[in-house]
Design a protein that fits this description.
Cytidine Deaminase, domain 2; about 150 residues; globular; 7 strands; alpha+beta; seven-stranded mixed β-sheet
């Protein structure tokens, strides 16, 4: 019986990388999100903005909608995703969220934040192969941020 020789491939050819450094396009996406929150920030009502880029280079932004009843709040990522879907966006390839600091915080820089758990689930549903820009000048695949997504 002949033995088949197993072809051994480097790991980077078998699976896409799970994290990487951000690039110029990512910096542009962060700038879009920062511009939205800088313009529309309202303490405790609009504190986070998001920006999504599709495979054609188009960018959609969203703004966190605060509410008196906390469970009615809507994160910025779903707003941006809804706009992309309504306006004929392509496949989402990159996402970022930024947070405006609270008035009493020492550091007043608008900073990149990781998506909340619900937004990770949403991205896993609509953009499972997308990159998500996270703090520290890095980006990660949605599957890395949410290794065990909920499945019906």
């Amino acid at each position: 019986m002949a033995m088949l020789k197993k072809l051994k491939l480097p790991n980077d050819l078998l699976t896409p990388p799970s994290d990487a450094a951000i690039d110029e396009l990512d910096l542009e996406l962060i700038a879009h999100a920062r511009a939205v929150i800088a313009k529309h920030h309202r303490p405790f009502w609009h504190t986070v903005a998001a920006a999504l880029r599709d495979d054609e280079g188009r960018i959609w932004t969203g703004l966190h909608l605060g509410a008196t009843v906390g469970r009615l709040q809507i994160c910025a990522e779903p707003i941006a995703l809804g706009r992309a879907l309504l306006e004929g966006g392509g496949r989402i390839v990159t996402s970022v969220a930024v947070r405006h600091p609270k008035p009493d915080e020492d550091d007043q820089e608008i900073a990149v934040v990781a998506p909340c758990g619900a937004c990770r689930e949403l991205l896993a549903d609509y953009a499972p192969d997308a990159w998500v820009i996270v703090p520290g000048g890095r980006k990660m695949r949605v599957a890395t941020l949410l290794p065990l997504p909920y499945r019906r």
